[in-house]
Amino acid sequence: MTSSRGAPVGEPGDVRPRRTAAAPPADGTAAARPAPEVTDTGRWGPRARRGLVALLVVLLLGQMAFAMVTAALRQTPTIDEPVYVGSAAVHLQERSLRFNPEHPPLGKLVVAAGVAVADPHVVPGFQGDQGELGRRLLYEWGNDPWRLMFWARLPVIALTLLFGLVVFAFARELAGVAGALAALALYCLSPDVIAHGSLATLDVPAAGFVLTSVWLLWRARRRPRLHLPLAGAALGAAVATKMSMLPAVPVLLVLAAGCVWGASAGGARRRAARALAGAGAVALFAVAVVWAVYLVVDPRLRWAPQQHVPVAHGLRGLLVELLPFPEPYRDGMRVQFRFENHPWQGFLFGRLYTGSLWYYLPAALLVKTPLGALALWAAGACTVLAVRRLRPAAPFLFAAPAVLLAAAMLGSRDFGTRYVLFLPMFLAVAAGCVLAARWRWAPVVAGALVAFVAVSSVRAYPYYLPYSNEAFGGSAKTRLHLHDSNVDWGQDLGRLAERLRERYRGERIWLVYKGSGVPSHYGIEARDPRRVPPDEVRGVLVVSDSAAAKATGALAGLLAGSRPVEDVGHSITIYRR
């Protein structure tokens, strides 16, 4: 049965709220008398309500844009950014794929849109490694690193804001306008999303493309011919940005098959054939996008890697060989497998360890997620599973994030919550569903929790990267629990230079800095205390918090004999000796 507009009515799995004249409330209480209809010319008519909703959306996205642009202007390059910016510049000017093969080009092409505006000077045919490429581009080839980094970050900021609209649209289809606004508020106020959405990195784009693909699959239940190709393209964009999104591919193909099965008529055999064809179409478009991305960089697909490409053995090697992607992509996977075999160091709740802990990411999320968001995530997940009309959305909201989270938890790199940025996106949508349950207490409690998140997020300004919630002492205490991109990713070198000029001018400075920036470029004249006898280290000792977390030997002794004076951006600590 279809409506006069041709849209399906009453299909299984349709969770969009409908108004019915006689349906009583689910709790059995007497139905409330409906409020009189207000015309378009009335104070709260449909036009006014639409305008109010649009204003709230603009305000939420506007405050997020302000926070991200402020961070982009004030932060020096983080550890990964120079590699991506340097690779993007080479993609643009030399049409070459030879740098950074462990990450596909799409995210770097997004960055390249800003790099093209900055128009940096690149020495042709540079033969060093990718880290050296980034350092020389920023600090040695006559470019302004502040200007170049701002323009490189700007396209990622724009993309992050667009993903906010996806969160809003997805939640509105499930929970109505109120739920959509709550979901968008959680997304826009998330310190993790703000922090990484303001950087020229790949984590937010990859996560956002997965969310977009799932949302389009949800819409494909009614119009599969329109939305399945778009979902496949978004899935291709995700795996063409980060290879860590590959575990989501089979999940989304199953969801695609289920969408077509539900939308098809006829016998089981015919529906199964159509379901397989639908999944195949999604896979085909995804593969086509990956190939197109590589061909955009280099139409001839010349491949001469600047680093050694290891051989992958066993099941991993077979998987790499079977992938229908270009050779640079498969070589990048081989490099990633080598990284997975490396014994990295981790830091969690004051414990320094070698290897990885399966519970690291859940523990880190517990520290770095606002308490109100944690409560709404849990309530939203329970609501989706408990409310009958919302249950069809559960596989779309939870299956892909669960698989991606499991894959990340089994990885060898305990470096930060940036590896699971898809969770704040998907769970924001789920949290909005609390307002679709029509429980009397839901709007008040949800509003209070969103306000709590807003207060916590505003208090973190402008230091979003080292954020931790109030239960763990706030941003000033994050360094006691976590390290690396959770706290100190090299982002505050510029702020440190300002602090040293203001308060420590003329004093001897000793510096242990963990990052990709060049201290001397920012006017910091310092020596490394680890290269001289400890009794010679006197005066001001400055140590990045990630370096302090992993301090052993001479550095640990120096810190034990020093007095902390203040911190810079909650990521660098200044000591007196």
Q: What is the gist of this entry?
A:
The chain is mostly helical and 577 residues long.
Number of strands: 6
What is the approximate shape?
globular
Structural class: mainly alpha
Flag low-confidence runs.
Answer: 1-42
Q: Biggest sheet, open or closed, and with what strands and sense?
A: 4 strands, mixed
Q: Order the strands across the largest sheet as they lie in space.
A: 3-4-6-5
- Rg calculated over all Cα atoms: 25 Å
- What is the H/E string? HHHHHHHHHHHHEEHHHHHHEEHHEE
C-alpha termini separation: 79 Å
The helix count comes to: 20
Can you describe this structure?
By secondary structure, the protein is mainly α. The chain contains 20 helices and six strands. The strands form two sheets. The chain has a four-stranded mixed sheet with strand order 3-4-6-5. The chain has a two-stranded antiparallel ribbon with strand order 1-2. A hairpin with a 2-residue loop joins strand 1 and strand 2. The longest helix is centred in the first third of the chain and has 45 residues. It is globular. The N terminus is likely disordered.
Name its key features:
two-stranded antiparallel sheet, mainly alpha, 577 residues, 20 helices
Q: What is the topological layout?
A:
Elements: H1 46-74, H2 81-94, H3 106-118, H4 130-139, H5 145-189, H6 191-197, H7 203-219, H8 224-239, H9 248-263, H10 268-297, H11 314-322, H12 327-340, E1 345-348, E2 351-354, H13 360-368, H14 371-386, H15 394-409, H16 422-432, H17 442-460, H18 493-503, E3 509-512, E4 540-544, H19 545-549, H20 553-560, E5 563-568, E6 572-576
Parallel strand pairs: 3-4
Antiparallel strand pairs: 1-2, 4-6, 5-6
